[in-house]
Specification:
The protein folds into two domains: 361 residues, Glycogen Phosphorylase B (Rossmann fold), CATH 3.40.50; 306 residues, 3-Layer(aba) Sandwich (Rossmann fold), CATH 3.40.50. It contains 34 helices and 22 strands. It starts with 19 loop residues before the first helix and ends with a helix. The relative contact order is 0.09. Belongs to the glycogen phosphorylase family. One of its GO terms (cellular component) is cytoplasm.
Length: 820
Amino acid sequence: MDKPSSTVEIPYPAPRSSRPEIMAEEIIERLTYRIGKDAKVAKPHDWLTATILVVRDRIIDRWMESTRKAYKTGAKRVYYLSLEFLIGRLMRDAVSNLGLMSEIRDALISLGVDIDVIAGLEPDAALGNGGLGRLAACFMESMATVDIPAYGYGIRYVHGLFRQQMADGWQVELPETWLAHGNPWEFERRESSYEIGYGGAVETVGGYEDTPRYVWKPAERVIAMAYDTPIVGWRGNRVNTLRLWSAQPIDPILLDAFNAGDHIGALRESNKAEALTRVLYPADANPAGQELRLRQEFFFSSASLQDILRRHLQQYPDFTNLHEKVSIQLNDTHPAISITEMMRLLVDIHGMDFQQAWEITRETFSYTNHTLLPEALESWPVPLFERLLPRHMQLVYAINALILVEARKQKSFSDTQIRSISLIDEGGERRVRMGNLAFVGSHSVNGVSALHTDLMKVTVFSDLHKLYPTRINNKTNGITPRRWLMQCNPGLTSLIRDAIGDKFLDDTQALTELEKFADDNAFREKFAEVKRANKIQLANLVGSRMGIRLDPSALFDIQIKRIHEYKRQLLNIVEAVALYDQIRSHPELDWVPRVKLFAGKAAPSYHNAKLIIKLANDVARVINNDPSVRGLLKVVFVPNYNVSLAEIMVPAADLSEQISTAGMEASGTGNMKFGLNGALTIGTLDGANVEMKEHVGDDNIVIFGMTADEVQKVRDEGHNPRAVIEKSPELAQALNAIASGVFSPDDRSRFSALIDGIYSHDWFMVAADFDAYAAAQRTVDQIWTDPKSWYSKTILNTARMGWFSSDRTIRQYASEIWRA
């Protein structure tokens, strides 16, 4: 929201009433005059929209007050740039944070409407893929909660990430149509529109005696138009803005071409512009996909920076104090092009000296790294980058010269080190390294767990760390307890309030007061009752969607996350096959009934990840239909994982699978959600699992497998997975069953290549960690058979997870990075 153009004192309307009878009247009014429906014929989706509009009015009161306060105080603003914001459904979140849940519920009851029914109709905003996008959403809510003036900037994807369906066990990608019927939460801001250019050429302006200026003349232009969504903090004390950009053509239709009969060609520019914001993460396995991805990243980065600079000039005469009033956080490398775009805007458009612009840019930006995988640190072919963004390519070379001269002269870096820190990768196809650009263009580079941060310094950014030894710091991720406890698990929230009062609602670390109830029999029984109710809810969902009956008395073992080989869903599936063999071979033993639940999406072009989904479904079909298992083991892959599904699965989990190859998961936030909701974690010492172990205690988490150092040592010395497999009869039998077609009788070689990968190189240490993982699962069984011990441990997990609140994380960002 922007500062009013007029200086005339305008009387503001009084805040809206929170009385249920008043809100009921307003809902009928919105239904009648905004939606055009008589209450007698209104459908549930009409009631949903009318209710959202009434809630939105109450948000607007606080939104405008938050904006006025920021302008009045001149407070430093934080701008969070992210290609993803996985915000999920907003109504329950907003109503809860406003403290109006009981009032809205009563208002709707008086109208004969069930809030739970209509809230379930709200579509999930399809603006993210997984942990990165959900973290951004948690951070936006926490920034409002801890009273930091902030904007989130991203893309208003029409379809976003795909909707996942299963066809004979294979993932099928379908468009996610979350915007098909509009979005009552958003506001179009047509005045906040900016031209975004691509291609063209750079011209030099200036004579012999003048300092030359560089003018980029793009060959293509599109318009970025803003859409604002209010983000409500806890208790509604602050409302911040999520501003998403939609692409529009300069000329919507080439009328001459249309009238000449070229109806398709006439819409070419329109279609090209709309493609920019059509889909999140277009497949980049081909040149066209790579180009679209780069176009998207520059599109939202340029629009956001133009908007930030315009807003700054509304209050200040120039940009010399930009870094004192503005802090821009880059969420991963996707917005890294913002570094060069800021330089272009300051130098080329606003006439600032290059060196001054560079110092201001670096002090304004900070960068969060989310991966240690070199292939996940984006890079772009130089020819593509130069063709699409010619001026930015010049600036990359200019910045690179600055950095390399500094490294050579001041630090006496070797040729090898120079090649490592260069913004241009000269090995093979020359590419622009966006991770290096984000690093050198920021005053702060943070990891997202203690282990991840330490590894950054010795792996992907080792030489840059030597050049700038104080730049890397740690900010362990967190989750918002409002959505991931209070809203998704009202039964547990109510139980905690009865036990320790309400202090934890404002300070999650007050949950430690629950520790004294870990050995209280009455409390343990109530805790178990809440968990069982949540499991029944999940069982009902699986039954209605998939026709599979689940026993809520069984141990619910859940792994939900993006499907990737390093996250090792494959290890979990192989162990399920081995367990299946053991149950059939030893029916006389007392096996713990177990349900293994999976959910997650695979990138459309990631063949092995999609094959793992198919394997999970094939294994599930065989195991679930084998009467000899006697219902002791079931495997379920729940399709179309999103925030709303997570809100049901997380509270229902008994066991949380956090089993990534050590050293490869930056942090994880699913581990925190499960722990907060009273699940026991089985995991490796990877990402934030390390800190979780420190907080919950060694006895209240099940750790297995190699450490990050051990993984690296095995790789360096040469891993022989075949020898490992031959020493493990259970593993060998399970792999042989999968490879030979036991679970794929229609195509016996379907999974042979997948299993061959384990035998030949086992990069993700599936074979290396299998025996330790299987033994850890049997440890879990032993704990499960003693309910008192189990629930004592899970209660302590809930009690000791308060530190992992995103409020704590954001306060650390604010004090140590943003200085806000």
